[in-house]
Amino acid sequence: MPTINGPWSSDGRVRLVCEYTVNMNSSETQGTFDADILIETKYSMYDSVNSYSISGGLGSASGSFAISHSTGKKSLIKTMRGTKTGNTSISATVSGLEAVSGGKISASFTLLMPETAPRITSFSYRNLQPTSFVADILSYSDNGTPNKTQVQWNTSASTSGADAKDVSGFNDILVSGLAQNKTYYFRMRIATVGYGWGPWTSWKSVKTPADTPNTPRSNWYITGITQTDARVAGMSVSDDGGSAVTEWGVQYNTSKSTSGAKTRNSGSANTGPTLIGLEPNTKYYARIRARNKNGWGDYTDWKAFTTASGILVLHNGVWRTAVPYVKYAGVWRRADIFVRHNGVWR
Q1: Beta-carbon contacts of residue 343 (< 8 Å; ≥ 6 apart)
Q2: What is the DSSP string of 276-290?
Q3: 8 A C-beta contact, residue 24 and residue 62
Q4: Residue 346: its pLDDT value, please?
Q5: Residue 273 binned pLDDT confidence (cut-offs 50, 70, 90)
Q6: What topology does CATH give the domain 3-113?
Q7: Burial environment of residue 97 by CB neighbours within 10 A (0 to 12, 13 to 18, 19 or more)
């Protein structure tokens, strides 16, 4: 059992000693203590009447007792018993005892009521998503190595109807399957081998963010292509983020780069955005995204298209791009047409 020794008397013959045991209850937050206050003599000693006084966290007691024993023996003065919460210190002072030539002796003892199951002292959340977050323990009391972690969550700070999840070891826990743009409450606890679960933390609130639309499906396309403009069509999303798409946006460039790219928005969920200011007979790349009341979603991959050249012919009532060919070295080859504009051949 734990033993706390007081100082020897001035003549070096007598000292006070505290020997104690602690038994935690099933909740691991309270325990009972038995503290024996003893007098120890370095040499043989006899004193028929000796008084004592005990005060402090162990309780109060006073009385007298007789010392009669040989060298190196301990005599019990008083046993103090009580119940205390875990992880607390208990201080006590013993005084009024007579040493043969050392005068009155006293000692102070501090007993620690251990908290055998660990207690979480700080926790939070991270990686907050529209339908999930990670519950994360930041610190805990060092009472053994945790072998299990648990989280409980609900839409109110209540255990009624709450969901729970536990994992092996000391780990963070992914809480998923939540509704977006909603406030949740969660709490945590940890356990150790042999002592079981420690106490729950208090409840902490977390609000999931609103979601934006998914990246549009890949079946969109560029249509209505002329020499200087085109239009996006066939737009759709697999998930609108819980709020209807309000408009579509397009980004386009002569390369798969955002540097120097132009953007256009449709202003409507029913029509695709128009690409304007294009150059004839030029290859372009475009990508699109969707927007709802929460904001813009992510862009798709780039898609390539080529604007029409400057010559059109009417065929079956439809104006179509005319592709000129010339015969060179006995082979028909496609001819590129250039005009001089502002001093530059285009």
Answers
A1: none
A2: -SPPTT-EEEEEEEE
A3: no
A4: 67
A5: very high
A6: Immunoglobulin-like (2.60.40)
A7: buried
